[in-house]
Every structure is written in structure tokens, then in C-alpha cells.
Design brief:
The complex is a heterodimer of chains A (327) and B (641). With 327 residues, chain A is an alpha/beta fold. Chain A has one domain (3-325): P-loop containing nucleotide triphosphate hydrolases (Rossmann fold), CATH 3.40.50.300. Chain A is built from nine helices and twelve strands. The model of chain A has no long low-confidence stretch (mean pLDDT 87). In chain A, the strands form two sheets. In chain A, strands 6-7-8-3-9-10-12-11 form an eight-stranded mixed beta sheet, sandwiched between helices. In chain A, strands 2-1-4-5 form a four-stranded antiparallel beta sheet, covered by helices on one side. Chain B has helices at 9-25, 28-45, 47-50, 85-121, 123-138, 141-151, 156-166, 169-183, 186-194, 198-234, 245-254, 263-291, 365-372, 399-405, 427-438, 447-457, 474-485, 504-521, 532-538, 556-561, 566-574, 613-617, 635-640; strands spanning 320-331, 339-350, 354-358, 380-389, 392-393, 410-413, 492-496, 524-529, 541-546, 549-555, 623-625, 630-632. In chain B, the strands form two sheets. Chain B has an eight-stranded mixed beta sheet with strand order 6-7-8-3-9-10-12-11, sandwiched between helices. Chain B has a four-stranded antiparallel beta sheet with strand order 2-1-4-5, covered by helices on one side. The longest helix of chain B is centred in the N-terminal third of the chain and has 37 residues, at 85-121. Chain B is elongated and about 110 Å long. Classes of the chains: A alpha/beta (327), B alpha/beta (641). The interface between A and B is large, with 77 and 68 residues.
């Protein structure tokens, strides 16, 4: 199978119904949470999905996990269409795509021991009685940096620190030997000194276990050193996608430029002009006409209000959706 | 899961039970209730051994035995049939407990499953089940019970069934709301992502967290069932073939115990009912305290008075607003060693200056800020040091004097404060209230103009003034909170992680706002954060705290380009720097110390890559480096001097 088509997402949309604007109004308002997203993921590749809250990145994660049903578009995994599988058909697939959540304090059941938490995925998938069950649990825990595993097994989540809990979540994902890990803001709740640890761990996994990582974050700064490619999302769409260096060093979309300019640089000698956008991401119920970024765009021209910019190919790997790039 | 993890579960259950007992012991009422119930249980189980006479033996009863007062033969006298009241009481405990337990069992099963199904599956299930529950809840229980029992044969079995079938409504509601709460938690989503089936999620994730509530509810349902049975028996609808406490009351009352002065025949079963219901209620209360963390109470020590009575006035340096000297704060808990939250911290803040206070969670930075205004919870005590504000020592002022300074001299924007706005009042109203409260002398007619002016200062237009908080985004709510903090023209604003929960762009907006305010109004700002990047963008000087002590204190350029403390150095390496992509982030191994279990030597030593022997035994002093107020607490600094 071609490595290009490991995971392929095309025109993915998710519209939530948000009730009627007035009691007897005929049309139902819709939240355009994800509104036409497409990208591909190669084996053991790390792609970062970056955007502010409300850009639809978390909904996208739930769609990819099959925890929400898309309104339109397709998701293909290893060539197979997995867009609308039922729970039964999806079960095998779930093993291959695992998720790591934002809040390690909330995503562990407080009444289970660490061993039970890490073993649970095996039980769910019917591997409860395989002879190497315990070895697999120990290996997953140690690969996630909980060494030696015995020390942690009988503990409860509240006895661990935030970083250790996030490692438990990662271990519970690894135990099924997944091919993709979808990490939704995995470090934003952790202290700075511990963030690097979790990011380094994810970076190692792709090398030791050939796991592809979809890293969802609002902080472009944290993806710098380990993402292969970066996709910047705004209001339900990808506005720029490219290799990490292309996006960070040669951003083309005005939104990407602004996002990069406000990343704090830890050196007062390098203080620079920041492009601070006015206002906030608009409500995805009323998506602006034309380019959806135009109301906040510092360089918008008249035609931005009317026409929705197409994806412009800048290089083999670099694309951006901005009218200013259309030649 | 239960079957597959057998090797660990007995230990787990045992240790859980032990922990449970340890915390249950602390609730006095619960233990009293438990003992009260145990007494009744012993009576019921060993009734044949305890009761001096057989159950309902009427063989040797003569007319003179009726309503005999208490005596050596009959401790609690005899009843209308000449039987021993104590013996009947002992056997009656069996009946009451049987009815209580079995009826409660039925109620809990029905209520528990209704609540679970309605809460977990939602949708149509929820609507139909909960409507049914509502209907059952509206119908008054007792009359319905009376009608049903009167229509059916009043046997013990029927009574249990009827009480059980009518007593589940509150359980269903309680279980449903708990299920809803548990269902919305992230670990349920994680279980779904793993691929767990619904039954698996209910059994392994929902049930263990609903169980505690169910246990508490169960105890209360038992007591209600016993009470119901007694009521039924008392009004003559009990099973005539068994003698429950209610039945005893019924017979005594109906057969002239009152008129013949045989108080004992009424008092003894009556007390029995009171005893068991009281015992169960106390037990339920005790269980709730242990199992339901929401009712957990903190035992606080009374707040400590200011350290010194005579107010110190310190000669004022030019432009100095704050001068904090050797401040130490301990948290004192009942029966626990004091937690050294802040130890020997000093800094100064001049007019218009922006100081960054950087540290990880639990490093004492919030405690330090609260202590500046003496807003610590009462367990937190300033044990040493001085806080001079404009030359006045805040640690020695009275509450009234401090109130003059709070908000007018120094105001605070708390972390997450934007969620503390009152949802049913407009933002303008709430700012008006803040102005009126803190500036009572402010001319009333000028207040609206002042509110508009404050909102404009933070970038909120006049037409948004009468909006409600929910119409504001997170960033705007934070702006409104800053406007409130500005209400009395303070000299200093303490901003405690004001941007932590916000997106990068909103964060940048708020930072820009604080910086502008400082330039426009000459405000001094103390910016509390864990984010070194923000500090570099904004601040003039930086205080880095670790485990309650000053790690390093210097101007911003020194901190970033010439840090001396290994913690500062490591923290900088751990921070992603976009100017150097592809650079591997280095993490600091280990975790910050807990304030109640601090290492013996330097608090950073266990994680420090440069630590040597002395670091593990001796706490380093604060060493100053050069002449420009650069301070670091590290043995290496002393060695290099």
C-alpha cells in the first residue's frame, strides 16, 4: 500500500444544529464546526493541527476517532473508507487509532488503579486472556516512561503528578499497539518543565514504534521541533498547510503570520513587533462571507469580502488559501 | 474486568475498605449511628438467646399478667396479652429490619437502574423514565401505600413489596444526576475512544462512581421503609401474624394502654423506632461525609493576628511602591506539620514597573501574592518578614486600615476570575457596583461616565456595556475584570495567571492591554505566570520561585541571557524557542517538591543536573551577584564568587 494513503481526509464537514433563531423560524441554525477539511497523513509522520479555540480542531479529532458522525466528506484509512462505520465495524479500527486527551486530571477514572487503566483497552478488545497480557501492559507503561512499571501499577491516579498521569493515558493508548495517536492538546494543562517531557515522549514513539501522530494544539511554539508538517486551521478550515519549516519560516497566510508573531520568544533582546489581531474568532454559526478571515485580516482587500479563496499551491508540500496568493 | 484482574482485586478492595474505615472513623455521628445499628442487629440476630421469654407464648398467661409494670421478671413490663414487652421488642426488631432491608433492596434496584438508564442513555429513555418518576413523586406515598395494602392481603411479603415498589423515586433522581455528572467526564470519552461498549462503560466507569451515592441513599431508604412499615402497622394494616414494633404500638394503643397507664407498652416500641431511624440517619450522614467529597469540610485554624502591633514606617526610596523583606508563609493544619509555602522571599517594585513572578504550580507564587494583601485562607500565616507598601508595613495594619489599601492601592485580577462574573447582571452594572462599593464618596451622577471610561480603557466599547457576561467571550470577560480592578485607580495591579486559559492571540491582546495601561496610567504590575515566554515579552524584572523559595531574582535581560540558578537555566532549555526550530527540548526530570515533604537541602537538588553533595544536605542562602540586584540561591554561585 502506498504510504501516501495511510490516512486520507477529504472535504470533511461537521455541522451541529444550534436550534432556531426564533421560536417559529423555519430554518434551523447550524454551527459549521468543521467545514471542508482535507489532508493526508503518512506512516510515522507527525502533523500538527494548530488553531485557536473555536477553529474546529477538537471536533475534527472526534470525527477522526469516529466519536462524531461527519455531515459530509470522507475519511480513508489504509485505502478503506471508514467515514460511516458502526460501532461493531469500527472496533478493530479503534485499536489502530488511539487518542490522548488534554486534561490528564479528568481523563482517568479515579477509582481504577493504573494497572486496571492500562489493561482495560486489552480487555475491551478481547485480549484479556492472552498469555503475554501482563508483558504487554508492562511494555506499554515502560515505553510511556513509567519505569519500573511495578512501582506504578497498584497506584491510583490521584497519587501521580500531572505529567505521570499523561504518561498513563499514553500507556493506555500504546498497549493496543496503535498506528496513529491523536493527541488533543496533550500538554496545555501541564507545567512548562514537564511539557517537554511529554512532547519528547511522543517524538520518540514515532521512531521506536513507527506511530504517526496528529498533534492538536493552539500553541504553534510547542510544535516547532517535532512536527513534520503543520496545518493551521481557522473557523473550520485549513488555511495553510506545509512542512514545519515552510510554515514557521515562510508563512504565507496572514493568519499564520499573526499567530507566529505572537508566540512569546524567551529572550527580551529578541522582542519584536507583534501582529495582534483585533477581536476573536467569529461564531461559527454566522460564517463571514468570502474569505472567512477577512473581518480580522490586517491586509484584506475588497475582493476578500466576496470570494472564498481557493487553496493555492506554493510548493509541492506547501499550500495556503489566500486571495493575495492567487496570481 | 472483574474476572480478568482477580490477582489484584482482593488487595485493592481490602486497601479501599481500610482507607474508607480510616476516614469514616473521623466522622463522630457516623460511628455513633453505626454502633446504634449494630446493637439492633445483634438483638435481631440473637433474639432467641437474648429474649427472656418465647415469642408469643401465651400458655401461662393469666388475667393478672396484663399490663404489669416493669419488674425483675419483666424488665419492661407486660403488654395487653400479658406477654413480656422486652421479648416482643427483641423479636420485633427482626420484623422491622427484614422489612427495611428487603423493601430498600427493591427500591434501590428499581431506582438505581432507572437512574442509570435515564442518565446514561438519555434521549427517549430519559424522557419516559423520568416523566414516570415525576408522576410517582407527585402521588403522596402513604395514602397510596395504605390503599394498596388495604386492597391486597396485608401480609409481610405484600408490605415489603408495596413499600419497595413505591420508595424508589428519590433514588432514581439522585442516581440519574450523578450518572449525568460522571458521564460528562473525560475518562468516559476516553473509554469510548478505546472502543469500549456501553455495558462495559456502565459497569466499569459509571457504576463505581455512582455506588457511593447509592450506598448513602440506601441507608436513608432503609430508614424510610422501616418508618413506613411502622406507620402501616400502627394504623392496623400490618401483618397480623407477626409482631413488629408498629404492631406493638397498634395493639397497645388500641387496647387501652394509655387509659390504664401502661406507658411502657407504648414507650418501648416507640423508642425502638426512634432509635433505628436516628441510627440510620446518623450513619447516612457519616457515610455521606466520607463518600461525597462535596460535603467535605476543611478544618481551619483561627486566623493569626498581625505580627507586630506597632506600625513600622520605613523611609521611602524614590518611587518604591512595594518592598517585601524576607517574607515567610506557612500553612498550618490541624495535627499536621506546617507546610512551608513561602520562605524568605524579598523583592521591590517601583512605580510603573512590571515584574514577572514565575514558577510552576505549587511553587507558592499565588500564596505570596495573597499574603501581600493578607488575603490568605486562615490556615496560611505570615510567620516572618515585612511587606512595605508606600512605606507602611502591611503585616502590622488592622483589617480596617488594610481595607483602605485593598483595591485602592493594590488590586488583584485572579486566575479564572472572568468566570466569576454574575451571569444575570450586565457587565456595566457589575462595574458600577464595584465603583460604588470601593469608592463610596464618588459623586453618583458621575458614575455612568466613569464606568464607560473604565471600559474604554480596557477596550470594551460603550455599546457592549449593557451586555450580559455570556455575550462576552473569555477574553472580553477578562478585560471586564481588569476594568473592575482599575475602578479605584490603584497603584499596583497583581495579575495572577490572567491569560492561562486563553488562546495565544487573546493572550497577546491582554498582554498588550496591560502594557498599554502601564504606560497610560503609570501602573505597576506584578504578573504571576508559569510561562517564561510571556515574561520575556513584557516584564522589567523577574522573580523565579521554586518550591516556595526565591531561585533567582534579576532584571529581565539577566534572567534570560545570564541566568545563574540551574533551575532558571533548565527552565529556559525546556521552553520551545521558535527562533531555533528542530532544537530538541530538554525536560527537567522529576517533579516539583510537595510543600509538606520538602527535601532537606536545596529544594531543587533532586532535579538539579549540577547538584553535588552539599546541595542535598544544606539549604543554600540567597547570594547576590554583581551590583545590579541579581540574586540567586545556589551553592554554585557562592563557590564561583
Amino acid at each position: 500500500m502506498s504510504t501516501e494513503h495511510f490516512l486520507e481526509v477529504q472535504g470533511l464537514k461537521k455541522h451541529f444544529e444550534a436550534g432556531r433563531p426564533a421560536l417559529f423560524s423555519r430554518d434551523v441554525q447550524k454551527v459549521h464546526a468543521v467545514d471542508g477539511v482535507g489532508f493526508t497523513l503518512r506512516r510515522s509522520e507527525v502533523i500538527a493541527l494548530v488553531g485557536e479555540s473555536g477553529c474546529g480542531k477538537s471536533t475534527l479529532a472526534l470525527l477522526l476517532m469516529g466519536l462524531e458522525d461527519p455531515t459530509a466528506g470522507t475519511i480513508k484509512f489504509e485505502g478503506q473508507d471508514i467515514t460511516h462505520l458502526n460501532d461493531h465495524e469500527r472496533k478493530d479500527l479503534r485499536r489502530k487509532i488511539q487518542m490522548v486527551f488534554q486534561d490528564p486530571y479528568e481523563s482517568l477514572n479515579p477509582t481504577q488503579t493504573i494497572e486496571e487503566i492500562v489493561t482495560e483497552p486489552l480487555v475491551v478488545h478481547g485480549f484479556a486472556n492472552v498469555p503475554d497480557r501482563r508483558e504487554r501492559v508492562v511494555k506499554a507503561m515502560e515505553d510511556a516512561g513509567l519505569k519500573p512499571a511495578e512501582v506504578y501499577m497498584s497506584r491510583y491516579p490521584h497519587e501521580l503528578s500531572g505529567g505521570q498521569r499523561q504518561r498513563v493515558v499514553i500507556a493506555a493508548a500504546l498497549v493496543l499497539e496503535p498506528e496513529i495517536i491523536l493527541a488533543d492538546e496533550p500538554v496545555s494543562m501541564l507545567d512548562v518543565s514537564i511539557r517537554a517531557e511529554v512532547i519528547n515522549l511522543l517524538a520518540e514513539l514515532r521512531i521506536t514504534r513507527q506511530i504517526a501522530v496528529i498533534f492538536i494544539t493552539h500553541d504553534l511554539g510547542s510544535v516547532g521541533f517535532f512536527a513534520d508538517r503543520v496545518a493551521v486551521m481557522y473557523l473550520g478550515r485549513i488555511v495553510e498547510i506545509g512542512t514545519m519549516l515552510e510554515v514557521l519560516e515562510n508563512p504565507q497566510h496572514p493568519y499564520t503570520k499573526a499567530l507566529i508573531s505572537v508566540i512569546p520568544v524567551p529572550n527580551p533582546r529578541l522582542r519584536h513587533e507583534r501582529i495582534i489581531l483585533k477581536g476573536e474568532t467569529p461564531n461559527p454559526i454566522n460564517v463571514p462571507s468570502g474569505c472567512r478571515f477577512h473581518p480580522r485580516c490586517p491586509v484584506a482587500i475588497e475582493s476578500c469580502k466576496a470570494s472564498d479563496p481557493p487553496m493555492v499551491t506554493l510548493s509541492k508540500t506547501h499550500q495556503s488559501a489566500c486571495l493575495l496568493l492567487v496570481k | 474486568m472483574q474476572t480478568t484482574l482477580q490477582n489484584t482485586s482482593p488487595n485493592k478492595t481490602a486497601s479501599q475498605l481500610f482507607n474508607f474505615w480510616e476516614s469514616f472513623k473521623k466522622s463522630g455521628t457516623g460511628v455513633v449511628g453505626l454502633y446504634m445499628i449494630i446493637v439492633i442487629l445483634i438483638l435481631a440476630i440473637f433474639a432467641p438467646l437474648i429474649a427472656p421469654y418465647d415469642e408469643s407464648s401465651t400458655a401461662n398467661v393469666g388475667i393478672s399478667d396484663i399490663y404489669q409494670p416493669p419488674s425483675a421478671q419483666h424488665w419492661f413490663g407486660t403488654d395487653d396479652a400479658g406477654q413480656d414487652v422486652f421479648s416482643n421488642f427483641v423479636y420485633g426488631a427482626r420484623v422491622s429490619l427484614t422489612v427495611g432491608f428487603f423493601a430498600a433492596f427493591i427500591s434501590l434496584i428499581i431506582g438505581g437502574s432507572f437512574g442509570l438508564i435515564a442518565g446514561f442513555f438519555g434521549g427517549r429513555w430519559e424522557t419516559s423514565l423520568m416523566r414516570f418518576t415525576d408522576i410517582m413523586l407527585v402521588i403522596p406515598d402513604l395514602p397510596l401505600t395504605v390503599v394498596i395494602v388495604a386492597l391486597t392481603k396485608p401480609s409481610l411479603f405484600n408490605i415489603i413489596l408495596v413499600i419497595g415498589l413505591l420508595g424508589w423515586t428519590t433514588t432514581a433522581r439522585v442516581v440519574r444526576s450523578q450518572t449525568l455528572a460522571v458521564k460528562s467526564r473525560k475518562f468516559i470519552l476516553r473509554a469510548r475512544a478505546i472502543g469500549a461498549s456501553k455495558p462495559h462503560i456502565v459497569i466499569n466507569h459509571i457504576l463505581p462512581l455512582v455506588m457511593p451515592i447509592l450506598v448513602v441513599q440506601g441507608v436513608l431508604v432503609i430508614s424510610l421503609a422501616i418508618l413506613n412499615e411502622s406507620t402501616l402497622s400502627f394504623i392496623g394494616l400490618g401483618d397480623p401474624s407477626v409482631l413488629s414494633w408498629g404492631q406493638m404500638l397498634n395493639y397497645a394503643f388500641g387496647r387501652g394502654a394509655l387509659s390504664s397507664g401502661a406507658w411502657w407498652a407504648l414507650l418501648v416500641p416507640g423508642l425502638g423506632i426512634v432509635w433505628i431511624v436516628l441510627g440510620l440517619t446518623l450513619l447516612g450522614q457519616g457515610l455521606e461525609q466520607v463518600l461525597n467529597p462535596r460535603t467535605d469540610t476543611h478544618h481551619l485554624m483561627p486566623s493569626r493576628l498581625p505580627l507586630s502591633k506597632e506600625a513600622l514606617v520605613k523611609p521611602l526610596h524614590q518611587n518604591t511602591l512595594f518592598e517585601v523583606q524576607n517574607l515567610s508563609i506557612h500553612y498550618v493544619g490541624e495535627g499536621k506539620a506546617p507546610a512551608h509555602a513561602v520562605e524568605d522571599v524579598s523583592f521591590t517594585l517601583k512605580e510603573g514597573e512590571l515584574m514577572g513572578l514565575v514558577g510552576e504550580s505549587g511553587c507558592g507564587k499565588t500564596t505570596l501574592m495573597l499574603a501581600l494583601l493578607r488575603l490568605l485562607p486562615s490556615a496560611g500565616q505570615i510567620v516572618n518578614g515585612k511587606v512595605f507598601f508606600k512605606g507602611k508595613d502591611l503585616t502590622s495594619l488592622s483589617e480596617e486600615e488594610l481595607n483602605e489599601i485593598r483595591w485602592r492601592g493594590i488590586s488583584i485580577v485572579f486566575q479564572g476570575a472572568m468566570n466569576a462574573l454574575n451571569p444575570v447582571r450586565t457587565v456595566g452594572d457589575q462595574i458600577t457596583e464595584a465603583v460604588m462599593k470601593h469608592e463610596p464618596k464618588f459623586p453618583k451622577e458621575n458614575i455612568p461616565a466613569r464606568v464607560t471610561q473604565l471600559l474604554e480603557l480596557v477596550g470594551i466599547t460603550a455599546d457592549q456595556r449593557d451586555h450580559f457576561p455570556h455575550q462576552y467571550s473569555g477574553g472580553m470577560r477578562q478585560r471586564a475584570m481588569i476594568a473592575m480592578a482599575l475602578a479605584c485607580n490603584p497603584d499596583v495591579i497583581i495579575a495572577d495567571e490572567p491569560t492561562t486559559a486563553l488562546d495565544v492571540m487573546i493572550q497577546a491582546q491582554i498582554l498588550e492591554l496591560l502594557d498599554n495601561l502601564r504606560k497610560k496610567l503609570g501602573l505597576a504590575v506584578i504578573f504571576v505566570t508559569h510561562d517564561l515566554g510571556i515574561v520575556a515579552e513584557l516584564c522589567d524584572k523577574v522573580l523565579v520561585m521554586y518550591g516556595g523559595v526565591t531561585a533567582e531574582y534579576a532584571d529581565v535581560d539577566t534572567i534570560y541571557n545570564n541566568p545563574k540558578h540551574p533551575y532558571t537555566q533548565e527552565l529556559l532549555k525546556a521552553f520551545p524557542d521558535l527562533t531555533k526550530p528542530k532544537k530538541k527540548l530538554s525536560s527537567i526530570p522529576g517533579y516539583p517538591p510537595r510543600l509538606d515533604a520538602l527535601p532537606a537541602g536545596c529544594r531543587f537538588a533532586p532535579r538539579c543536573p549540577a547538584a553535588f553533595e552539599r546541595c542535598h544536605t544544606e539549604q543554600p542562602a540567597l547570594h547576590s551577584i554583581g551590583n545590579n540586584n541579581h540574586i540567586a540561591s545556589c551553592h554554585l554561585v557562592e563557590a564561583s564568587k
